[in-house]
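Q: I'm writing up a methods section and want to include an example of the input and output format. Could you take the sequence below and give the corresponding predicted C-alpha cells, formatted cleanly so I can copy it straight into the document?
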Amino acid sequence: MSTHALVKTSDTATHDELIQLVSFMLADEEYGVEVLKVREIIRMPTITKMPNTPHYVEGIINLRGKVIPIISMRTRFGLAESENNSQTRIIIMDVAGSMTGFIVDGVSEVIRIHSSEIQPPPSMVLSGGIGKEFITGVFNHAERLLIIMDVDRMFSDDERDNFGELEK
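A: Here is the clean output for your methods example:
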C-alpha cells in the first residue's frame, strides 16, 4: 500500500486508480477511510478508562490478548457527545503501524470509487480547524458528500507515542 494521499494535486487525470473506502457515520455526516487501513469492525465492548490521557481517548480494550487504545471520534472532532446505541461500532485501524480503535455512530458500507472522482476539500475548510491535516478529499456519494480521511495524519507524532505507551 502506498503512503501517498488519496487526493493528488497533479497527475490525477492520468492515474485513475480504483479506491475502496469503508464509510461510517458520525453526527449525521458520512466519512470514509481506505479499506486497507481497517483491520476489523467490532461492537462496543467494555472500555477500561485510563488516567492522564487526552480528552478524546475513551480508554483501552483487550482484543484477543492485544491492548488497543480507543478514541472517541466525536470528541476528537469537537462534536457533541451522544449515547451509544445498537449501531455504534469500533473500527480497529492501523494508524502509522499501531492498532487503534475509533468509536463511530455506525458503519455503512464499502464503496469503490475512482481516484478521479475525489474532489479536493475547499480551501476555506482547510484554512483552520482540526480537520485540515487529515481530510484528503470529498466524494459525492448518493447525493451526499462523503468526507475522505487519512488516519495516519490524524494524530501528531507525540500523540502516537502516547498511544504506544497505552499498548504496553
